[in-house]
Design a protein that fits this description.
The chain has 201 residues and is an all-alpha fold. The chain has helices at 5-17, 22-43, 54-66, 76-101, 111-116, 139-152, 154-165, 170-177, 181-200.
């Protein structure tokens, strides 16, 4: 009997960490669709004239992931947690270049509406699909606000990164951070309120 995809991803990550290069080839198709889904949610919030394509974002993020040195891979959640960091960096770099060329005309951001599109959890914390909202997001502004939050509360900043940039569920964020799901829920609420205030000023 074939193991569930999550267990298979974890097994392949462990094999890859152990030096089995063939595991990487088997891993790619298993994580590709999920990375594409995360990328699509992010790019749906970009301006209609953006030039960064979903496939390019996925490939760049995956290349950065496999280029990581000294990572002791041990779970699917850990993999997608690091993917969140990679996508954040790529999207912010892209936004900086675009904003520099346009001399920084930034749209107002409704962070509640933005983050609502990433609330893929129901009240029990299990994953459930949520409608994607097409909202013009300035990733550079979000990143700058998130950096300020990380200085005030590193855990809240990490939760936002995992949820917003990585599309991880509450359960997955809790696993990566080594805290309870209820803690992640509580911190997520506080972080969203703080970001809403920062980005509305």
């Amino acid at each position: 009997m074939k193991p569930p995809p999550d267990m298979e991803i974890t097994r392949l990550l462990l094999d890859w960490s152990g030096g089995n290069s063939a595991a990487l080839s088997a891993l790619y198709p298993l994580v590709y669709d999920e990375l594409r889904s995360i990328a699509q949610r992010k790019l749906n919030r970009e301006r209609p004239d953006h030039t960064l394509q979903r496939t390019a974002l996925v490939h760049e993020a995956f290349l950065r992931l496999v280029d990581q040195k000294n990572v002791n891979w041990h779970s699917r959640a850990q993999f997608f947690g690091l993917a969140a960091q990679m996508m954040r960096r790529i999207l912010v770099d892209y936004a900086r270049k675009r904003n520099a060329s346009k001399r920084g005309s930034h749209a107002m951001i409704d962070i509640e509406a933005v983050l609502a599109g990433d609330d893929t959890d129901n009240m029990e914390g299990s994953a459930a699909p949520a409608p994607v909202q097409e909202i013009d997001v300035d990733f550079e502004a979000v990143d700058a606000a998130l950096e300020r939050l990380e200085k005030l509360d590193q855990r809240q900043g990490k939760i936002v990164e995992l949820r917003f940039f990585g599309g991880l569920s509450l359960d997955e964020a809790a696993e990566i951070m080594g805290v309870s799901v209820s803690t992640v829920k509580r911190e997520w609420v506080f972080a969203r309120a703080w970001l809403q205030r920062e980005l509305s000023d």
